[in-house]
Amino acid sequence: MTLPLIDATAADRRPPPPIRPHLIRQDAEAIEAAHAVARIFAEDAGERDRARRLPWDEIEAFTASGLGGITVPRDHGGADVSHATLAEVFAILAAADASAAQIPQNQFGVLAVVRTAARPAQAERIFSDVLAGHRIGNAGPARDGRAITHVGTRLTEGTEGARISGTRFYSTGALFAHWIPARALDDDGRPLLVWVRRDAEGVRVVDDWQGFGQRTTASGTVVFADAAIEESLTLDLTSLAERPALFGPVSQLVQAAIDAGIARGAVAAALDFVRSKTRAYPFTVEQATEDPYILGEIGRLQTDLHAAEEVLARAGRTLDRVAAEPVTADSSARASVAVAEAKILTTEIALEASERLLELAGTSATRAEYNLGRFWRDARVHTLHDPVRWKYHLLGNYTLNDALPARHQWN
Question: Is the pLDDT confidence value at 39 over 60?
């Protein structure tokens, strides 16, 4: 199946200049803002997916709400909300539109790296930019069959300063961003996180994402062609893998929250469709809402959803406890394990709920006008980001052999 591409002009469309957003100060305010933005996300979400129309206005609404800065530390002017709140914010947004919710996810993973690896002046600049409405995108791995950890992007020194060259894919959020952080190797082979302006000469972002799910994330290609970087913001990642931190668990927590949101949206859609449109099986009951098999399945879905949501919230609370003290190898491992448990359950309920939605709703639910298949497509594609089989391995190895998980953004 060939998916429609955005036209060439829109494919490299650039975001408008940042407008200072509302400043969120408390966790409860973040949850309230998430519900407000979710109502905007939900409007025409099915039609956007069908037409593959990118959510530019919706992302501007997200930024204006102040949600992009909720993890900025308090001493830098942010709310520094709990990890449990962060997870709930993304679950609320993804229940409305999983594609729109995925677009800002990398911003929070990057901000977690900044908290670990940035010098004070760098952190101050980045955090202040985020609170001023700048969005952070992502330059993902190369699409060349190599390991996801392979870095082929190069940073070279020249007479006019350092320049970055390379092509990256799976670059969720880059099209909408003002900053595109990218991992690169310098002339000495050191791994760096360099910051590139979205509007810098030599930067091209193309919406050539062709996945059958998460269709409006614009998770396509970023090309750096001898592009200038913001040298004062370059982060040296040489020792990052050896330093106990929470940037990996935070990134994974957001991923798990998006899956929980997809499941939440699918269950809500199932309830709505069964109540309003599903016909009862002939010669059994008068209403589909009286069908004992449908009732049993709905009960099981609710139970599984609530279990996944509670384990997700528990993982967030675990991260909060770990973050309250100096992070050690053991506490970092506990955080990774807690998030792995959540990732397993949210993956399973996202796939189960989106599949059962169509089974419970009946044949009419497959009509294109309802576009209910997007829940399964989104669940299937998004849950492939970090294979859940490795989460089982992580848990088993930790439980049986006391093996601490490796430190990277996928744990």
Answer: yes
- Does an H or E element contain 400, and which? helix 388-401
Q: For 14, list phi and psi in degrees, rounded to 5.
A: -110, 145
Return the higher-pLDDT residue of 406 and 410. 406
Q: What is the pTM of this model?
A: 0.93
User: Where is 256: in which H helix or E strand?
Assistant: helix 247-276
Element (H, E) at 222: strand 221-228
* Segment 347-379, tens digit of pLDDT: 999 999 999 999 999 888 899 999 999 999 999
Q: 24, 66 in Cβ contact below 8 A?
A: yes
Q: Rounded to whole angstroms, what are the CA distances from 232 to 18, 114, 223, 356, 407?
A: 21, 13, 22, 51, 26
CA distance 352 to 356: 6
Tell which residue, 197, 216, 206, has the closest CA to residue 57.
216
- Distance between CA 40 and CA 58 in Å, rounded? 7
Token pair for 117: 């690896």
What pLDDT is attached to residue 5? 43
| SS3 category, 158 | strand
Structural contact between residues 351 and 380, judged by C-beta atoms closer than 8 angstroms: yes
Q: Assign residue 166 a region: left if phi > 0, alpha if psi is -120 to 50, beta otherwise?
A: left
The per-residue pLDDT for 155 is 92
What is the DSSP pairing of strand 179-185 with strand 161-168?
unpaired
